[in-house]
């Protein structure tokens, strides 16, 4: 049942999302669909251009199509969009002074966890009881 | 003895650090819900000159270019007759125009006949209207829909941008910041 639904929805998704565009060059077609995946629809906040029905997304798809056929590189197209819509238009924000914290955060978190694990791990390996304490423990055990 | 057990307790306390980190992150994310994402979206074009364009005027068909926007600070209002919110925003635009501030309309992806009719019925707050039927100037401006309003200084540089309806409060802020002299 779930599978049937999944099939139906994935079908609907694929037909609503992409306008009928014709490509003579398969490499351009491939780049077109790849770009649509990584460019965000500026109106819908969490949908990419490939998946959005918003009018602006349709316009931007047409724009990407046009720019590709004008011979622009993928990078040039991304820059073109960022200049007009800001970093927000890309799902992967570029590394800049403003976003460096964003990129560093996972690394900082991971290092923090490593540090704690190491620190606590070492504590565990050290003998916890002094000789006197150990002796007393033994005595208690025996009694 | 005492130092040893307290140092191991300290080590155990360290285990809370990732948890605290996580909670802090959760608070930051929760807080960010309070802002509409659109309110915090900066315009990439603020501080840049209004893009070059060449489109016809809605009523007289004359070619308009960027130089028509230079001379005094003004608002450029993106609107369309199909845009319901634009109708809601309209009265305040009329009010602003009456107060002597120049508003230029960017008629966005609209049918010129319908647009003219729309202005005839509601009054025309615009000095002139740039007809952008394909929404191409809209893309140059990073417009995502209508209404959107840009504030231009006398050199034709974009100094601010508002996405969505202009409220009394928005206008008061703009007025005091850019149209006070």
Structure description:
By secondary structure, chain A is mostly helical. Chain A has helices at 2-17, 26-38, 55-69, 74-85, 100-125, 131-142. Chain A folds into two domains: 2-89, Cytochrome C biogenesis protein (Helicase, Ruva Protein, domain 3, Orthogonal Bundle), CATH 1.10.8; 100-142. Helix content of chain A is 66%, strand content 0%. In chain A, helix 2 runs antiparallel to helix 3. The longest helix of chain A has 26 residues, at 100-125. Chain B has two domains: 2-34; 38-178, 3-Layer(aba) Sandwich (Glutaredoxin), CATH 3.40.30.10. Chain B is elongated, with a radius of gyration of 24 Å. The termini of chain B are far apart. The model of chain B has no long low-confidence stretch (mean pLDDT 89). With 181 residues, chain B is an alpha/beta fold. Chain A binds chain B through residues 42-43, 45, 54-56, 59-60, 63, 82-86, 88, 109, 112-113, 115-116, 119-120, 122-123, 128, 130, 133, and chain B through 1, 4, 7-8, 11-12, 14-15, 17-18, 21, 37-38, 41-45, 109, 134-135, 138-145.
Tell me the domain tally of chain B: 2
**CATH architecture identity of the largest domain in chain A:** Orthogonal Bundle
Inertia-based shape of chain B: elongated
Kindly report the name of the CATH homologous superfamily of the largest domain in chain B.
Glutaredoxin
Query: Largest sheet of chain B, if any?
Result: 5 strands, mixed
Alpha carbon gap, first and last residue of chain B = 76 Å
Helix content of chain B: 40-55%
Number of helices of chain A: 6
> Could you state the order of secondary-structure elements of chain B as H and E?
HHHEEEHEHEHEEH
Number of strands of chain B: 7
- The number of distinct helices of chain B, counting runs of at least 4 residues, comes to 7
Number of E strands of chain A:
0
The low-pLDDT segments of chain B are none
Radius of gyration of chain B: 24 Å
Output the structural class of chain A.
mainly alpha
Oligomeric grouping of the chains? heterodimer
CATH superfamily of the largest domain in chain A: Cytochrome C biogenesis protein
Query: What strand line-up does the widest sheet of chain B have?
Result: 5-4-3-6-7
């Amino acid at each position: 049942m779930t599978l049937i639904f999944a099939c139906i929805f994935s079908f609907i998704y694929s037909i609503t999302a992409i306008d009928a565009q014709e490509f003579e060059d398969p490499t351009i077609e491939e780049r077109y669909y790849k770009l649509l995946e990584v460019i965000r629809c500026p109106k819908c906040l969490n949908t990419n251009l490939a998946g959005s029905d918003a009018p602006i997304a349709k316009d931007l798809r047409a724009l990407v199509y046009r720019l590709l056929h004008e011979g622009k590189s993928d990078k040039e197209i991304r820059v073109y969009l960022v200049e007009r819509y800001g970093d927000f238009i890309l799902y992967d924000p570029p590394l800049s002074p403003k976003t460096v914290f964003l990129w560093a955060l996972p690394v900082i978190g991971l290092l923090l966890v490593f540090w704690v694990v190491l620190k606590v791990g070492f504590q565990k390996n050290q003998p916890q009881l002094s000789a006197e304490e150990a002796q007393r423990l033994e005595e208690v055990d025996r009694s | 003895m005492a130092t040893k057990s307290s140092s191991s307790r300290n080590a155990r306390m360290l285990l809370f650090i990732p948890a605290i980190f996580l909670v802090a992150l959760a608070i930051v994310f929760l807080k960010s819900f309070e802002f509409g994402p659109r309110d915090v979206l900066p315009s990439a074009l603020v501080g840049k000159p209004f893009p070059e364009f060449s489109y016809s005027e809605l009523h007289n068909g004359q070619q308009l270019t960027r130089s028509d926007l230079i001379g005094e600070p003004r608002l450029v209002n993106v609107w369309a007759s199909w845009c319901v919110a634009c109708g809601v925003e309209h009265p305040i635009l009329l009010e602003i125009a009456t107060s002597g501030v120049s508003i230029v309309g960017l008629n966005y992806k609209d049918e010129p006949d319908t647009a003219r009719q729309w202005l005839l019925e509601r009054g025309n707050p615009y000095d002139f209207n740039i007809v952008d039927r394909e929404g191409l100037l809209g893309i140059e401006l990073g417009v995502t829909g209508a209404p959107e309003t840009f504030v231009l200084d006398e050199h034709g540089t974009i100094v601010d941008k508002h996405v969505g309806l202009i409220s009394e409060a928005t206008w008061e802020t703009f007025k005091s910041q850019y149209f006070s002299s």
